[in-house]
Amino acid sequence: METEIKTFEDLEAYKACRAFRMFIFKEVTSILLTIKEYNLADQIKRSSRSVTANIVEGYGRFHYLDNARFCTIARGSLYESLEHCITANDEQLLPPHHLESARSLFEQAIKPLNGFINYLFKSADKSKNYILWFP
User: Fold this and answer.
1) What is the pLDDT of residue 134?
2) For residue 96, what are the contacts with CB-CB under 8 A and spacing of at least 6?
3) d(Cα 88, Cα 92) in Å, to the nearest integer?
């Protein structure tokens, strides 16, 4: 039995990306701020926040393709956040076990996000009921 989607918070992609964002905030940025790596902490915080923010903004859009566009932006931000973790590890600012946790949460997030994006594109193809808005 499928779970009814009543709000963006019910989306599996959102839940997984939120878990990734919360890990970044609680674990990664706290380490970076402790060692006064403010620029990287700010960058990774912004990119991880962008992931869930774009999923939510897309959810609020009118058509499947609008939603898919924002979810693909979220996907890019998810990859960007992982890259910031890799950079922090490369620069010996982030312990290897934190990078591995980030990779694991990334994998748990990217799969449902890709699935949701595919669902949106397929739904857009099936609908073909495009409504034109003229001001």
Assistant:
1) 40
2) 89
3) 6
CB 16 within 8 A of CB 108: yes
Q: Quick one: 77 exposed, middle or buried, by C-beta within 10 A (0-12, 13-18, 19+)?
A: buried
Instruction: Answer for the pair 77, 50: CB distance below 8 angstroms, yes or no.
Output: yes
d(CA 14, CA 16): 6
Q: Which two tokens stand for residue 79?
A: 């990859």
Tokens matching residue 36: 């006064």
Q: Rounded to 5 degrees, what are φ and ψ at 30? A: -65, -40
* Residues whose CB falls within 8 Å of the CB of residue 81, separated by 6 or more in sequence, listed in order: 20, 24, 44, 47, 48, 51, 102, 106
Q: Does 132 map to a domain? A: no
What sign for the dihedral angle of Cα 10, 71, 53, 102?
positive
* pLDDT tens-digit readout, 82-91: 999 999 999 9
Say which amino acid occupies 54.
N
Q: How many domains does the chain have?
A: 1
Summarize the confidence of residues 38-51 as an average pLDDT: 97
CATH code, domain with 24: 1.20.1440.60
